[in-house]
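Bench notes, afternoon.
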Amino acid sequence: MKVYIQKFGKTLSAMVMPNMGAFIAWGFITALFIEAGWFPVESLATLVGPMLNYLLPILIAHSAGKMFGGDKGAVTASIAVIGVILGAPDQAMLIGAMVIGPIAGISIKIFDDKTQDKIKAGFEMLVNNFSVGIIGMLLAIIGYYIIGPIMTMLLGILTVGVDFLITKGILPLVAIFIEPAKVLFLNNAINHGILTPLGTEQVAETGKSIMYMLESNPGPGLGIILAYMVFSKNKTTKGSAVGASVIHFFGGIHEIYFPYVLMNPATILGPIIASIATIFYYGAFNTGLVAPAAPGSIIAYLAVSPKGETLIVMGGVLLATVISFAISSIFVHMAGDKSLEEAQEQMAQMKAESKGLTSKSANDIRKIVFACDAGMGSSAMGATKFRKRISDLNLDIIVTNTSVDTVPADADIVVCQQVLRERAVKSASNAEIITIGNFLADSNLDALYNKLSALKQVDTEEIKAVEEIAITNEIATNTNVFAKDNILLGLEADTKEDVIMAAGELLVKRGYANSAYIAGMLEREETATTCIGFGVAIPHGTISTKHEVKETGIVFLQYPNGVSFGDETVYLVFGIAASGDEHLEILAQIADIVEDEEQVETLKTTSSIDKIMELIGQNL
């Protein structure tokens, strides 16, 4: 249940967080130029309404649509949300955008999945453009007549509920739920997924909102950190608290204090009681912020304070800090010598769970993506090899490859090298990340295969991915991807850079790429080695130099005495320039060959180009 809640919260916040800059811009314009602002300017104040009513909902819908349906989903959602906005003319449709955006993204994705193999060649662009236009139009109509009015009714109920909590003095009690939820990494989900849309609606009515202050106040967290700084008996923990306090208070990274709570869960009482008292305090002064404080830094907090209320806002932060410190100090003093490192490990695990990065059940795996820097070399070979490996399991699982920066949103598992892990996490926030050292043979790939093999079942349908590779093979047979003139034997080189340049020069000479592509091949090697093991390397360019490729081609260079590629010695080099998928069949053959010691030895030592063609290019 906790994981599902975290995933739902992650989805909500992911619609809003990419657009926080726009919220802040709108907040500054509101704070500065409206009639009650710091520097009232009537003409500039006219920006407030259109930004609130159109810009922010469109941006949210765009992010949501892209999350569920890629670029086409983003455009479809942007069209559809206009219907929701005009269907609720008296409300700022932020929550409406959070509803129609996913609907639009999912709708276009369903359409694409249903028509993927049915569009005739040459009609792809026509179908893509018209599908976005028609689906967007239909959803805009539905938004105008159905979703907009329903959202107006829902917002009316929520407004009444919030007003009830405020007038009855109950609102401070929400801190009982918010503060523990933050430590479970629901902080962004609560703040940006729920409170920010509600607060923005309130600002449209009153010019400020206390909703922005319920989660973002840096005072409660600062109080805990200060308590450890003063009373902790662990010198390491005590010393770390100094830097943590600066990062938390001025940087606004509240997650920095979560491990301190996890070390001693009883300390959570400090932030809870501090938040309750501070919300009472802000309610008594009828104050709020004019825009979200994102991140929750004291700098951001004061920047979006209403004119004339800066000291009141500052007083609430100070009050929260003092109360949290006083209460947390009791439990820190009683706790003894506890380890911050263990708490940080626990926090890392919880954070991974909140992002859906923990191990997925085999039943939930529908798409596996192998990712490398450019998505044309090692990842393509790894995907092809693993696709064949699981084909006998008859599982409806798609195995594909891509650049690590363009992993599709529906990926369940991403396989990449350790050095690319951070980029993979950023690109595929909801996928499980499996890091490997070798795309062809790795214990983590074996573990993944074993997990999937437990699901082996008879399936009457062929896997779509297998059908796709068969089509690719058919295409490859009619191309000049690999030929005798692409082979150089008996070479010598001092460094791997010399090898990569030689491969690049041959690709250029054979007309597969422009000379600028060679620089991309050298840059790619700096990111992560293209040595795949077994004495084989597959150098290729970066994604940024892919436009330098004229047509797909592979060259083969033999170095009988070997060349050092870091920790391994390379004898066989396959230089790749790929504009499409025509090279995948060759990579599949290479993957099979390099695991056969006898064939590898033949490739290392033969002086016959015909023998190379027999082993590698026999089907081309």
